[in-house]
Structure formats: structure tokens, C-alpha cells
């Protein structure tokens, strides 16, 4: 049996942020996780709040928090915690090789996707910040041969529909693949890993130099490296044009870089990672969580292992992460078996419009300002258990563009609550 001051379940954005925040204050922290979380495949562009009620925000997102309603996680934890969490994330990431930043005026950045659409995001790397090319007159949208996810000719058609690009000439091109035709579909992470090596970096530099002649700006898929991204991107910026990495569908590479930075920091702080293990249930004694029981997936015939802690942070994600499960009979949180309010009819759980605001996206555990789960009367269920990220109810990250923002800020706040209850 292992004991920690703080035990975090889940190693996505919320769990990693919680683990690092708690460990920074000297607590002994363990992280139990089954998988790597959505952060490992996402774009790494940290969305805070891009839309409210379908309307795009053009001023500071903090001005719009009150429109989200008091049950939204941002309003439950408050603006101060959000600001401190974002500042801490930027500091951690920059200290660990992935340079990211906020807009100095407190506005959202514009990111451009691999499909030529634009999206508002709050914290991102310089390469993802497409606001830098809004004044460019001649832009090249470049893909890579056999990289199926990037179709630059289609992306150009899409980008030309935006007023912000109305005055620009935008063309497309394909960089020659370093691998030729591959036995399986090539993705952005394959290329980014290749670019980490000197040979791969030289390939990218040479292909870009040839393709970019005469252009003010070049947009490429996120392939400037994984662990060597910052060094490589800095060097590529000297080629004489503005280089932008589009945000991509999974694997988005930027999220992989961000995860790497957070894990680096956690390891410096002696956080213990126990991976490939599924937390099956919690042991409750006298209204408190005593331990969680985990099964190690990578050990054939493994027995259940008990992990005790003073405080627990549950950052197991929503329906995607497996923190919330939905069956025709009920919707529930998967470790404590907390019932989640939901319509009986499964049809009512989603919107007919596939890009609409789906009720299931808001499913989660109802919490108080300490992020403790609440019972039906509004009282905390367990004093020493705090929830973070997509496990929490009341927000719809795809339509709001608030995914990593809520995960980061609630992970940070859950750690503060756990430390305060020591
Ligand atoms: C494809 C995709 C792209 C996205 N892109 C962006 C983006 O560009 N910007 C943005 O801001 N947001 C984005 N989002 C949203 C954002 O990624 C999520 O809102 C956020 O990552 C949720 O983080 P989380 O830590 O709460 O959960 P998750 O990332 O889902 O992590 C859950 C963790 O808990 C673990 N876990 C679950 N159950 C158990 C268990 N029983 N035992 C042990 N471990 C368990 C999982 O293995 C995982 O480690 C995207 C989402 C998706 C699906």
C-alpha cells in the first residue's frame, strides 16, 4: 500500500496541472492514470473562452465570465484562480522547453487550423499565433505529400472566405515527403518527430526555403519538432518569412509538447507516476475517502492495489476521458459512482445539430468552490476529494472553446483546496 499527501487520478491537463501545483508546495504527490489524456493528442493551443451563446468574443474573455452563469466552473472558482492558473501554466511550460504566451492586451489570439478555419485561443506558442500574418499580402498554405490530414488546396478555399484574409493572395503547395509513399498513413506527429532529428530539421529547412520564395508568410502543419520545437522554430523564423504552424486534428503535436513540459516539471518535483492503471473504486470511511483501488492493466493477472492518501484529486475527464459514463439507464461518475442528473430519454442527451450544444457535453459532477462533489441537498459528499477538468459539470468546451482553460484552472484550484485541507 502506498501513501501520498495528494493522490491525483488522471494525467490529462487537469491532473497534471493539479499534480504540479500540489508538488510545488512540498506535498508528496502520486498520479494514477490509465492513459495519457486528451492533451497528448490535442493542438496545445489553450482555449480559455472563445464564444458565449454562439457569439464570438472580440474583447477580453474575462469580461464575459458573468454571462456563463453561476454554475459554470469558471464562476465557481473565480477569476483570480483562473488568472493565477494561466500564469503558472505559462511559467511551467516556458521553463520546460515549450514557449507559450498570452496576448499582452488580454485578448484571444487567432489560430488557423489545418483545414483553413480560424479559431480563438488564449495561450499558444508563437508558431500557432496566426494573428502574426493578418497583414501579410502573399501567403503560402503548405502541406506535405502523403500527409493525408493536410489538404492545402482545400484549406486555401476555406481561408479565403474570411474577411481577415480578403486582401491577401493565398496559394497552396506540397512539400516533398522525406519518406516517399509510406506503408501507413503519415501523420503530423511522425513528421514532427523526424524534424526533432538533425536530418529531419535539414529536410524541413530546405523544403521551406524552396517553397517559400516570394511569400511574406507560410502556414505549415504542426511539424517543427516535439522536444526540439522551440530551438527549431526560432531558427526557421530566420528564413525571411513569417512561419505559422496550423493547429491540427489529432495527433495535434502541440498538446504533446505541452504534456511533455508539464511532465518534466512534475518529475523535477518528485511526482510519482503510476501509469497503465485503472482506478476501479474508492474506499470510504466516516465520510472521507481512505483509498482508491486500482488494477494494473500492464501486468497479466494483476491483483488490485490499494493507494491511500490524505487528499484525492479526481481528474478523470468527461465522457471522452472515461470519468463520466453514460448508459441508457443512467449517467454516473465512474470511481465514486456519483449519479449525474440527465434526461431518461437518450435522444434528449444530444442535439440534432452535430455541431450544436449537446447536453452530454455538460454532464459532470456538481461541485462547490473547493471543487468538492455535492449531494442532492448541496452538501459536500467527501471532505477530502476534489474534482477537476472535464469531470466537472456545467460547461460545453467545444462550443465555448474553453477546453484546456477549464482543465488547467480547475486542476490548479483543486490542488489549492487539497493543500488547504491538509
Ligand atoms: C480531439 C480533441 C481536441 C481538442 N483540442 C483542444 C484544443 O486545441 N484546445 C483546447 O483548449 N481544448 C481542446 N480540447 C478539449 C480539451 O482537450 C479537454 O477539455 C481537456 O483536455 C480535458 O482535460 P481533462 O484533464 O479534464 O481530461 P482528459 O484529458 O480526458 O484526461 C483524463 C485522464 O484520466 C484518466 N482516467 C480516466 N478514468 C480513469 C480511471 N478510472 N483510472 C485511471 N485513470 C483514469 C485518463 O486515462 C486520462 O489520463 C480538445 C478535445 C478533443 C477531444
UniProtKB/TrEMBL annotation:
Gene3D superfamilies: FAD/NAD(P)-binding domain. SUPFAM superfamilies: FAD/NAD(P)-binding domain. One of its GO terms (molecular function) is glycerol-3-phosphate dehydrogenase (quinone) activity. GO terms for cellular component: glycerol-3-phosphate dehydrogenase (FAD) complex. Transmembrane segments: none annotated. Residues 5-405 form the FAD-dependent oxidoreductase 2 FAD-binding domain. InterPro entries: FAD-dep_OxRdtase_2_FAD-bd (IPR003953), FAD-oxidoreductase_2 (IPR050315), FAD/NAD-bd_sf (IPR036188), G3P_DH_GlpB_su (IPR009158). The keyword rRNA-binding does not apply. Its EC number is 1.1.5.3. The lineage of its organism: Bacteria, Pseudomonadati, Deferribacterota, Deferribacteres, Deferribacterales. Keywords: Oxidoreductase. It comes from Mucispirillum schaedleri ASF457. This is Anaerobic glycerol-3-phosphate dehydrogenase subunit B. PANTHER family: FUMARATE REDUCTASE. It is an enzyme of class 1 (oxidoreductase).
Amino acid at each position: 500500500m502506498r501513501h501520498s499527501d495528494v493522490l491525483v487520478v488522471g494525467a490529462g491537463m487537469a491532473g497534471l496541472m493539479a499534480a504540479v501545483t500540489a508538488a510545488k508546495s512540498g506535498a508528496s504527490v502520486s498520479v494514477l492514470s490509465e492513459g495519457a489524456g486528451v492533451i497528448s493528442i490535442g493542438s496545445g493551443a489553450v482555449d480559455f473562452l472563445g464564444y458565449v451563446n454562439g457569439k464570438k468574443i472580440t474583447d477580453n474573455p474575462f469580461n464575459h465570465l458573468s454571462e456563463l452563469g453561476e454554475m459554470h466552473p469558471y464562476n465557481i472558482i473565480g477569476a483570480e484562480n483562473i488568472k493565477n492558473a494561466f500564469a503558472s501554466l505559462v511559467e511551467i511550460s516556458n521553463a520546460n522547453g515549450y514557449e507559450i504566451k498570452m496576448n499582452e492586451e488580454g485578448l484571444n489570439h487567432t489560430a488557423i487550423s489545418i483545414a483553413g478555419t480560424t479559431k480563438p485561443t488564449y495561450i499558444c506558442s508563437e508558431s500557432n499565433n496566426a494573428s502574426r500574418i493578418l497583414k501579410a499580402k502573399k501567403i503560402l498554405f503548405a502541406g506535405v505529400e502523403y500527409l493525408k490530414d493536410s489538404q492545402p488546396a482545400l484549406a486555401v478555399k476555406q481561408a479565403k472566405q474570411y474577411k481577415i484574409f480578403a486582401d491577401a493572395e493565398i496559394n497552396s503547395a506540397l512539400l516533398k515527403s522525406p519518406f516517399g509513399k509510406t506503408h501507413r498513413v503519415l501523420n503530423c506527429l511522425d513528421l514532427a518527430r523526424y524534424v526533432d532529428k538533425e536530418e529531419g530539421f535539414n529536410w524541413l529547412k530546405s523544403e521551406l526555403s524552396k517553397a517559400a520564395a516570394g511569400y511574406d508568410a507560410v502556414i505549415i502543419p504542426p511539424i517543427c519538432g516535439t522536444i526540439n520545437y522551440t530551438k527549431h522554430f526560432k531558427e526557421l523564423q530566420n528564413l525571411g518569412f513569417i512561419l505559422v504552424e496550423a493547429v491540427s486534428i489529432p495527433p495535434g503535436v502541440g498538446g504533446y509538447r505541452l504534456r511533455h513540459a508539464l511532465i518534466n516539471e512534475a518529475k523535477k518535483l518528485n511526482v510519482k507516476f503510476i501509469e497503465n492503471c485503472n482506478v476501479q473504486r474508492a474506499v470510504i470511511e466516516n465520510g472521507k475517502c481512505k483509498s482508491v483501488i486500482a488494477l494494473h492493466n500492464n501486468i497479466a493477472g494483476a491483483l488490485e492495489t490499494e493507494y491511500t492518501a490524505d487528499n484525492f484529486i479526481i481528474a478523470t475527464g468527461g465522457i471522452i476521458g472515461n470519468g463520466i459514463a453514460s448508459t441508457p439507464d443512467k449517467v454516473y461518475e465512474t470511481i465514486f459512482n456519483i449519479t449525474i442528473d440527465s434526461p431518461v430519454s437518450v435522444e434528449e442527451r444530444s442535439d440534432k445539430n452535430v455541431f450544436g450544444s449537446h447536453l452530454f457535453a455538460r454532464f459532470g459532477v456538481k461541485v462547490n468552490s473547493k471543487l468538492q462533489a455535492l449531494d442532492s441537498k448541496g452538501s459536500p459528499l467527501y471532505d477530502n476529494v476534489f474534482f477537476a477538468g472535464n469531470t466537472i459539470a456545467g460547461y460545453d468546451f467545444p462550443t465555448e472553446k474553453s477546453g484546456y482553460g477549464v482543465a488547467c484552472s480547475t486542476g490548479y484550484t483543486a490542488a489549492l483546496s487539497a493543500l488547504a485541507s491538509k
